[in-house]
């Protein structure tokens, strides 16, 4: 069963009118939220949009140029604020579609290609919200969605674990390299080490032998 995005989500326009939220974020081209490094001193944060956990934010500018829509689901914060330029939307009924499942669909390269094709006629390659909202996606049963989401989570968790292992191995190798090959001065050499000519460990068969 296929449904349009507008059948599945509500567009949200909650503003930070009382200025109570100060965590400012944005959406990257890699479809994740990034903490803003902008200097907000003197900025009126009451005009910024409030985004809550499991809400989505999307940038619909220059879609055809980038061949990608920066769209992400908020997981890192319970609440944050974002530029008014970003449309914010929220799943209407989690018994119909899981936010995690929708998030997975947005990450597909096929979604980006379809969006870029639609956006070709837009001003500067942008996509109006109305066109974005008309895009369709398959919506299986909620039980099937849970299975797909769990399988995806298992794979991504394994990838993250392997990355941590690789990072730890790289750090360990770097430490070993520094320990064994950064010898410093002759007085600081490890026991049984010495500084000697290269010719003591190799035969030079071309060019002049180093002294």
Map the helices and strands.
Layout: E1 2-4, H1 5-8, E2 9-12, E3 24-27, E4 33-35, E5 49-52, E6 56-58, H2 63-66, E7 71-73, E8 79-82, E9 88-91, H3 99-106, H4 109-119, H5 129-134, E10 136-138, H6 142-181
Parallel strand pairs: 3-8
Antiparallel strand pairs: 1-10, 2-9, 3-4, 5-8, 6-7, 6-9
Summary tags:
211 residues; single chain; alpha+beta; Adenine-n6-DNA-methyltransferase TaqI, Chain A, domain 2; four-stranded antiparallel beta sheet; four-stranded mixed beta sheet; 2 domains; 6 helices
Word description of this protein:
This protein has 211 residues and is of the alpha+beta class. The protein has 2 domains: 2-37 and 44-139, Adenine-n6-DNA-methyltransferase TaqI, Chain A, domain 2; 141-196. The protein has helices at 5-8, 63-66, 99-106, 109-119, 129-134, 142-181; strands at residues 2-4, 9-12, 24-27, 33-35, 49-52, 56-58, 71-73, 79-82, 88-91, 136-138. The chain has a 4-stranded antiparallel beta sheet. The mean pLDDT is 86.
């Amino acid at each position: 069963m296929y449904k349009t995005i507008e059948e599945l989500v509500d567009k949200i326009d909650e503003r930070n009118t009382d200025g109570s939220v100060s965590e400012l974020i944005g959406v990257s081209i890699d479809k994740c939220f990034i903490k803003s490094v902008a200097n907000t001193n003197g900025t009126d944060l009451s005009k910024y949009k409030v985004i809550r956990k499991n809400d989505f934010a999307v940038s619909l500018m220059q879609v055809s140029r980038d061949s990608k829509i920066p769209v992400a689901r908020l997981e890192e914060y319970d609440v944050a604020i974002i530029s008014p330029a970003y449309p914010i939307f929220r799943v209407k009924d989690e018994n119909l579609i899981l936010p995690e499942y929708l998030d997975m669909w947005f990450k597909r390269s096929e979604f980006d290609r379809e969006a870029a094709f639609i956006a070709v006629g837009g001003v500067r390659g942008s996509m109006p919200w109305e066109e974005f909202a008309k895009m369709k996606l398959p919506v299986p049963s909620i039980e099937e969605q849970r299975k797909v989401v769990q399988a995806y989570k298992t794979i991504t968790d394994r990838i993250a674990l392997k990355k941590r292992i690789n990072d730890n191995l790289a750090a360990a190798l770097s430490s070993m390299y520094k320990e064994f090959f950064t010898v410093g001065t002759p007085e600081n050499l490890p026991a049984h080490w010495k500084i000697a000519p290269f010719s003591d460990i190799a035969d030079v068969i071309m060019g002049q032998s180093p002294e």
